[in-house]
Specification:
This protein is α+β, with helices and mostly antiparallel strands. The chain has helices at about 5-10, 10-15, 110-130, 165-170, 175-195, 245-250, 270, 280-295, 305-320, 325-335, 340-350, 360-370, and strands at about 20, 25-30, 50-55, 60-65, 70-75, 90, 90-95, 100, 105, 140-150, 150-160, 165, 200, 210, 220-225, 230.
């Protein structure tokens, strides 16, 4: 088993360029300079700071009305004399090799990161559109490019989901029946997107909204933030996607050694850089279940004053995940006096080998807990 010191001493690992998508931004290590995604200054209505709901790795979410929200990703500054009107919708076309046309004018991003973000924005919007009508999935409404405060922005409009995310509710103290209902609904969401070959890649409490009910265990959970979602190999995007967008999505612009996800919720295959399948979300679901039922993260921070070392330490623990690690997590569930069958069902989601993972037993046990009189 590799130790943390050995992992840190392996220069080839560090120099490969590791990326971790956090809840409030992106940290690049090795040869990358730190990147932050700013809130656009002097945002006009409805994107005001008092309407700001959340921040993710790829943008900021605002409530725009009583039943709508918008995710705004700041992509690149535009020249002040570009002649674009504030909040105007822009015609955006991809030519190829990192070259775009913006309202008929050539637009060349200064760095590869901008093009990668454009890929992610397009992919997120297209996947959300494909999932319209699926249960327990935030509903897509529109995607557009806009000019705001001197910046090119991607805006995805969607339904507004009332309530709080599971991270907030765990901090406040989440009843086990509401925890079970949230897990149940999240599984149903994963079943729906799995039928379309979609891997979320960022299952965590922050990305599950829970709208409570007056009755315990009768609220509704909604899976949000598809900014890191992708299609499993063998599944295709919709056939009606414009040719230029298909070209952008298929162009390989990802940095070698890049890991997409959130620290503490990676699957072993994510950390190991292996090909991902729908099973990777099942592992992250298991980690989420441990957290919502125990009130503690499966992999808590161990080096809070050194984010890079803490990330690498967490990656090492997940990469070395085995039956002993799993038993340690299950012991926490037993300490909460949860039903034995529920704990065994969580165990099925946390198998180190992806092809052995199964979330359907957990769905049944979560349903049983919700239905207790």
């Amino acid at each position: 088993m590799t130790t943390l010191d050995q992992f840190l001493e392996d220069e080839s690992t560090i120099q490969a360029g590791t990326l971790a998508a956090y809840s409030f931004g992106i940290d690049y290590f090795a040869e990358h300079e730190p990147l932050t995604i700013p809130l656009v200054e002097q945002l006009p209505d409805p994107y005001r700071e008092d309407n700001h709901l959340n921040s993710g790795a790829m943008g900021h979410v605002y409530q725009t009305s009583s039943n709508t929200a918008a995710k705004v990703t700041v992509l690149a500054p535009l020249p002040e004399d570009a002649g674009y009107e504030l909040s105007s919708r822009l015609e955006f076309r991809y030519i190829g090799s990192g070259l775009f046309k913006l309202n008929g004018k050539f637009f060349i991003p200064k760095n590869k990161t901008v093009v990668q973000q454009l890929q992610r924005c397009y992919a997120e919007a297209l996947l959300m559109k494909e999932m319209q009508g699926a249960p327990h999935i935030v509903q897509f409404q529109d995607h557009k490019f806009e000019y705001r405060s001197g910046h090119l922005c991607s805006t995805i409009e969607m339904e507004y989901v009332p309530g709080k995310n599971l991270h907030q509710l765990v901090q406040e103290g989440l009843h086990e029946r509401d925890a079970a209902k949230a897990v149940l609904d999240t599984i149903d969401a994963l079943v729906s997107i799995g039928k379309k070959g979609i891997i979320h890649r960022d299952i965590k409490p922050l990305n599950v909204m829970y709208t409570p009910s007056d009755t315990l265990g009768q609220g509704t959970a909604t899976l949000v933030d598809f900014g890191l979602a992708m299609k499993q190999k063998g599944f295709q995007y919709r056939s009606d996607i414009p040719d230029d967008v298909q070209s952008l999505l298929l162009e390989d612009l990802m940095t070698p050694g890049m890991i997409m996800g959130t620290k503490g919720y990676f699957s072993p295959e994510q950390v190991q850089g292996k090909e991902l399948t729908l099973k990777t979300d099942i592992f992250s679901l298991g980690l989420l279940a441990v957290e919502v039922f125990t009130g503690q993260r499966a992999f808590p921070e161990e080096y809070p004053d050194d984010s890079q070392k803490d990330l690498l330490h967490c990656m090492l623990k997940v990469s070395n995940f085995n039956k002993d690690t799993r038993q340690g997590l299950l012991a926490r569930l037993h300490q909460r006096y949860l039903p034995h069958n529920l704990v065994k069902a969580v165990e099925c989601t946390l198998d180190p080998k992806p092809d052995r993972r199964n979330m359907l037993p957990l769905r049944q046990e979560a349903l049983n807990l919700v239905q207790i009189n």
